[in-house]
């Protein structure tokens, strides 16, 4: 009976951590095997074991807490996922305005469908999270939730919904900050080609416009990629702050 009581908080914590790791970036990447996520979830739960409450629940109460911990982990992961979707949104905006959206295909590794820039930016952000301390901020924020929301506590869904609304706003702002300058340049290029067509009607604007926009997108898209490390660091800090705010 004592063994079961000791395992109950470990299992509950492992459910919250594993659900979070399966859904939240960067661990949600398809390149991270499922067994690795499960082992990492159990390992983090073991690291938090001294701070967890004692068990001794009945079967019905234990199953109810399992569902509650899965909801907490999934809700927090969804919040982090919305914030980091800014990078993919920026890449998709570049694809749309640069004419690369015609090459849309589903990527089973990233679990996304988008043009080449959307995939490039998403993959680059995932790599940057692993090579920097971004993933540590995400995991550290998850660990703090056990102090603010101990096992058996329920997540305030109203506060979670409010934080998701704020995270969605931050996502759009970050996407526009990354892709906005390139979009403005592409718009001016379209305006310039339109005026050129009015001046010289015999000029084929479509034949000239496509390679010109592709060249501008490749050059400025690469320049915008250089600013991605600072953007990813800022998004990781925003994700940490949002998780702490929801559970605070």
UniProtKB/TrEMBL annotation:
A GO cellular component annotation in the UniProt record: plasma membrane
Protein name: Flagellar biosynthetic protein FliR
Domain of life per record: Bacteria
GO biological process: protein targeting
Membership in a protein family: Belongs to the FliR/MopE/SpaR family.
This protein's UniProt keywords: Cell membrane, Cell projection, Cilium, Flagellum, Membrane, Transmembrane, Transmembrane helix
InterPro entries: T3SS_IM_R
Phylogenetic lineage: Bacteria, Bacillati, Actinomycetota, Actinomycetes, Micrococcales
Topology of this chain in the membrane: Multi-pass membrane protein
